[in-house]
Amino acid sequence: MRLPIAISVLFVLLAGSCSPESIENTDIPSPENAVLVEQALLDIVNDHRTSLGYSSLLFSTVAYEYANTHTDYMIAKGSLSHDNFSARASSISSQVNAEYVAENVAKDYPDAATALENWLQSPNHRKTIEGEFTHTAVSVKQDASGKLYFTQLFYR
Tens digits of per-residue pLDDT, 76-96? Predict the structure, then answer.
């Protein structure tokens, strides 16, 4: 007879601990931007470009919005990715009439200079940084363990 009582108590405890609110209605906080790192990266990317004779990239608030969303996504996932890049590129293109969009991502670098140094060692990342783009935005955020995640979007 004790077993049915224990099951009833367990059911009441479990039912009482569940929230009727769905995850869709819950405001999931996103990590704060590491604004100083973002600005440093924008500055050194432009310094690198101008040292090679390329034009400086203009900051884009539209690209920044999409970069932030993707950085949050990577942090939630716990890994780097270019997941959903086609959708980001299409949305940016339609909002600003861009003809070409590209993206660099990184994580675990302690600062902007190290992230840029590593991107420049990769032929594909270097090609993007030195590409014929006019606008950019970079989102840098820290996960719960203090690791930095970077998303830089470019377009022309």
Answer: 999 999 999 999 999 999 999
